[in-house]
Amino acid sequence: MWHRYRRIVETLQAILITGLPFVRINGQSALRFDIAELKLYFFGSVIWMNEFYLILLAILFFMLFITAVTAVFGRVWCGWLCPQTVFLDLSDSIARRLPFLGRTFSRYTALLFFSALVSLTILWYFVPPAEAMLRLFRAPVITVFFLVQWVLIYAELAFLGRRFCTSICPYAMMQNALFDKDTLVIEYDRSRENECMQCDDCVLACPVGIDIKEGLSSKCIACAECIDACAVVTEKRGMKPFPGYRGNLLRPKSFWLGGMTVAAGLILAAMIYSRPAVSFQIYRDPEIMPEGINRYSWSLYNNTSQPRKLELLSEDGFVVIGETILELEPFSFSKGKVLVRSEGGKGSVLFKLLGDKVEIEKSVGFL
Question: Are residues 255 and 161 in the same domain?
Answer without folding.
Answer: yes
